[in-house]
Amino acid sequence: MTPRLIRTAHAPLLLCRRICRCLISIFILSGVAGCPPRETPRFEEGPPRVLRTTDEIIETINSNAARLDQALWSSSVSATGHYKDREGKEHSFNFDGSLLFKRPRNFRMDLRPGLGEQVMQIGSNEETFWVWIEPEIHSMHWGHHRNAGMPCCGKMPVRPDQLVSALLVGGLPGESEGLYGPIRDSRAAYDVLTYHRAAPRAEYRRYYVDRDPPHLVRLVVFRDELGRDVMSAYLTDYKTAWEGGPMLPYDVSMMWAQDGAKLTMSVAAYQPRRDDEVSPKAFNMPNPTALPAGIDRVVQVDADCETAETAPPDSQAD
Fold this sequence. Notes:
By secondary structure, the chain is mainly β. It contains 3 helices and 15 strands. It has a 15-stranded mixed β-sheet that branches. A hairpin with a 5-residue loop joins strand 1 (about 70-85) and strand 2. The chain is globular. It starts with 10 loop residues before the first helix and ends in an 18-residue tail after the last strand. About 30% of the residues are buried.
């Protein structure tokens, strides 16, 4: 005998109850196991505390950076962090050293273990950037600013170009760097300024600006064209570097999420340096022949970007 489907007057009611139960379950699960937030970090939402115009926000940051009208020097830098080598093995470091910066992107940080010999250098000049590490990794990586962020540019343990950009000692980016914006988003505690660069060096840069004095940048986030975090930097402990000088972050924590690298830098004191107190060779990329004996490998990370092979400068840094 073939069974018959018997419909009753209660069937529509039962169906509605089942649908309601399913919808309630979906809402509950969505609240508990929803998609992770894309913001880094996740800030409290709400109405702005004090409304400032976008021009006022930019002017505060850039005028502070403009007070850095001399070279910046510190002989009391502490740096810790970790990075991965080409085989994916993690290495950690805890060094002390010095820092020298001159606008717009001349940068050099020499690091050593306590009173020992120098074992690491992070550097940048107007054309190139580099990092060499003697212990464990035994190599120097370098590239050109014009190729930074290109798909053809390889990875390196620490990105000196991003380090200089994140410190904001040169002010916010502009169209001269190929970045357009900002688009502003106001939060309860922060104003967020977003800049965009088109392909082939497509990226987004987000600057979280404190709505409380001194109204400077607290967090910097660089993202790739797919919206994935590339680098984030927390800038804390802002203080006036010297009388009449800029307010600078004395603690900086940077993370390269995709590369599994981190750098935390603390500065005890900054000092200004006149141009005649800075050696003309201070920001020269070191010649491979002048590197410590433990460096046995030199890698040009943007070699695939160059139409012709480019060799490091013949000059030697002090």
